[in-house]
Amino acid sequence: MSSSYVDWDFAKTTGRTLVAAGPSVTADEAAAEVGAIRAAARRAHGPVAETSRLQTPDDAPEALVVDRPTWIAMNADSMGAMLNPAFDQIVSQRGGAPSGVGAAIGGKVTGAEAGALLAFMSSKVLGQYDLAPGGTPALLLVAPNLLQVQRELDVAPEDFRAWVCMHEETHRVQFTAVPWLRDHMINGARQLATDLAPDPERVQELTKRITEKLPEIFSSGSGGITDLVTTPEQREKLAELTAVMSLLEGHADVVMDDVGPAHIPTVAEIRAKFTERRKGAGAIDKVLRRLLGLEAKMRQYKDGAAFVRGVQERVGVEGFNAIWTSPETLPKPLEITDPAAWVTRVHG
């Protein structure tokens, strides 16, 4: 059983236990913030669709405005739906699953680890388009995080809500306008999870390598633990998936900033302060980001925005939108830093 590997219910419990408290607000203030975020999300769709020139269905459900524990629970469900088929495949390849007390303990341990990671991420994520494998995708906006970051940056509340919603709405537009993209991402992530699972005989070797190379993991520019536990072939597959993630994030950044001047008076101030805030992350945040390889991925997302700009400068928005034609027209890892190479390959 897949549940032998990760107890997702225990992950939710652990996440709720460890999650940091949100900003201090009264019940009335919280209700007002939720209503304002929901309204900003509704207003974002038209400008995003117009700027991106992507056609989407008219019946998109309303964004879900959630708190941190709800975000944890929904992401635990999505992670389970995403990874359990990969676990089943691994079990099948290895001739059977563990059973009994050992399996239950193992599931609790991995569940606790997943819950701790979700608790950490739940205080960082402003919004997310939840692909919800096996369920219904949804646009999530994390109310306490929007309010906390807005206060930290000391920017106009209405403008900041609009700015974040433009970014997250772009993700919803990407996946609803390009029907094959969701399955492409889910299948790619599942296959990668299967490929990355080490054989039992490799676990001791990998543990030794991590111990020996620990200082390198925490160095600036490191790809995190992934660099140490993957083969060159696995890193190539990871790079392909990361290239698509870079595209999606970069495209959302470009759209939110292009929409901004006409709809968000203080967009330049928000972008400048938000970028500076990323640079000034706390010591613990930096350690965890390096351990998980998130710091390197943030740079790749910046490359994604430069890629989108570079392509649009050469062939315009409509020419760029050829990228959504099929999996074959998505950017390859080396093309993320070389927009001209993608234009040559796709447009000739």
UniProtKB/TrEMBL annotation:
Coiled-coil parts of chain: none
Gene3D superfamilies: Zincin-like metallopeptidase, N-terminal domain (1.20.150.30)
This protein's name: Coenzyme F420 biosynthesis-associated protein
Organism: Knoellia subterranea KCTC 19937
Classification via Pfam families: Zincin_2
Domain of life: Bacteria
Matching InterPro entries: CHP03883_F420-assoc (IPR022454), Zinicin_2 (IPR018766), Zinicin_2_N (IPR042271)
